[in-house]
């Protein structure tokens, strides 16, 4: 940013204060393979390596505008000063820098002559392409610089990029009606792309052979691999989602989330977030109940008012058939590819497969047996062994034989509840599972249907959906929740939830997982973990779904493995959502025992010394597509034998381990994203130490006796010490009072001497000065010229007067009474500079808290002693330190302490007793500090110089409110 470097860690954005940054204005950033962050600034460049910023001295004073890292340990930097810096990192982390060319390139802009502004870089093969302002694109090959005089030739280039097809793209200056975007397959013949883009300020290649272009005032344009416009984002078109139409930087992260840097901050766009599609403008036709994908990939939606087919060409849903007034509950295909539709008005079948019908289906009704028309509400369809089975509410399960429907279950003696079939599913074992509204679940093996005793719990609730996830995992979506039938037992996974539809996911992992559509609860993602059990995540209206009421979910068969998409049916249209596939990053934040452990200790393992037996681990997960509050964390604590002794799974990122027995332990932590993608495990070991002595009865007895003896002896000594201490305390108090009285008397004597000198001696000198003024201009009466003229006398008298005034001020500083404590300290510093010889003068800085004099609670005598200490310290500094810069700061702390700090950049010295060969300066400072019960300290500064501090406790006035508290 123009205000410095900022960092976003997934939770918050914070400004980074990095020592060594020569300018707050950062123009370029690049992360290389080794993890080093290269930073280009307005006044130079550097690299942030392992938290340490290393300055590239050769770039000092240069404006770095672009950085690329063509290989590990190498960075190429472009500047506004007509030169390129080729930087390589040495083994000792120093830099070897080569300047290309040796002399700066000159600008061709007659309005702005001087050095050529280089704006962007791109490496293609062995050729380095450079975008410039006024000379178009320049190529450097084998250290030879050449201009590319193409047709057309954009002269003012702002950005360069190369896509996955190895094509160059230019972003150039252009008018608002024109386009500054060029696609370059042949560098001599760039092709202008698009219209109305204006000036293109930034380019970024996507991961799917696409290209993003950020403009200066026209928003963002997104192109596919064929240079066709996919979408355009503007501030107005996104209702402020894109924070500004002036886009200066674009970044595509590892999760394909696109970040835009604008003049109004940073915003991001997730192309895989839920995207809502209206099936129809009418509310009932937009109420989607079921979804289906044909063998050739066509999508169909059954709504409350008919059947709709998705048209890829127009990206819209088109009505089909004559079911505009009937709800559609189920869709299927027979073995010939013909579409079957189960509706509230009966069963329908297309004459031809959808791929042969030209996009429009002609449906004909297949009527039920005579007398069954009144209850011909087809709720479910299933294909088993090449035969179509039909679930009809109020009739039962039928088989489609040609153009006839044959009832196969239940028999004529069955009760009415068994005929209320609402779901069918073909299992992987070749059996047909039947769900009813109230009678529970039945399984049909081709000859008969029966119930399974383990599923008795499902009676009395509507079983709306069944799916077989393989590996003996059978899922049931019911009006009471989601259930799993596994290993002969029924397990309630999510309770008190209206589950509408369940779809098992098929992947390479052995863990069972499903998507579950719910009424009022959005879309659930459920993952079964052997150690943690059921892990549940929710996708609802807060994350972009059009409604909380979801009726069906369809995993669309992907074109390739990376294109998994879900189609979600709601009562307000459908939504497309692409679940995440990239694992989040998990890192430790804090490890706290009796102390805060360094994160580097994890590599070697922690050792908790006796008697410490507790530990707190705090971690943080990062993902562009998962908000911090959506992460779920799993912690497992196991002992040396590998037995898990504690585990935790929640949204809380902290794990507390308490009352641990001595031994070795291992912690494994994982984070799960909102799509339940697990991070790489964060694992480390630690040891809890046992007691350092054997706990035997004999030893404890001996220790107890010794402790009692020590206690008795200590009691006697304490009584003796108490008496002695009281006497010593009284003596010390008397001594301190005497020392303070002596200091006060000394100051009083100083004031008396100063007053006498000022009132008497200066008065005599003034009288002598007046007498001198009465002498003739030339004091010689014989006409000869002598050096003892009245002017010489007057000059000597004034010099003596000034010296006496200085002595008076030193004896009794009037500045303390005239201007106050803080100003007096500043005057002492400036006065020392004024009276120092030229070779010892230094720059100084004085800093004091606002309103310091009103807050401090220091007596007149204490202020005088502090003033004397500062005078002595500054005098020592001026005589011995050879400093060039001095900083004096006074402040108060929150604990009520007065703090004075004096820093210089001069020579170091050792203030320890015995190291100073002559002088009483340090002894006087220590004596005065002891007199006012203050502490003084000297220490060496990093980089040279000395820091002197004086602190005094209880030096701040207490307000009335604080006193009451």
**Tertiary shape:** extended
List how many beta strands DSSP finds.
Answer: 66
Main sheet?
5 strands, mixed
Count of helix runs: 8
Helix share of residues? 10-25%
Q: Which consecutive residue ranges, at least 5 long each, have pLDDT under 50?
A: 779-786
Please give the order of strands in the largest beta sheet.
55-61-60-57-58
CATH first level of the domain at 813-961? Alpha Beta
User: What's the pLDDT, averaged over the residues?
Assistant: 88
Beta-strand residue percentage: 35-45%
Name the CATH superfamily classification of the domain at 813-961. Histidine kinase-like ATPase, C-terminal domain
* Helix/strand/pairing category: alpha+beta
Quote the distance from N terminus to C terminus. Answer: 45 Å
Going by CATH, the architecture of the domain at 813-961 would be 2-Layer Sandwich
Which fold name fills CATH's third level, the topology of the domain at 813-961?
A: Heat Shock Protein 90
- For the CA atoms, what is the radius of gyration? 43 Å
Question: How do you describe this structure in short?
Answer:
With 965 residues, the protein is of the alpha+beta class.
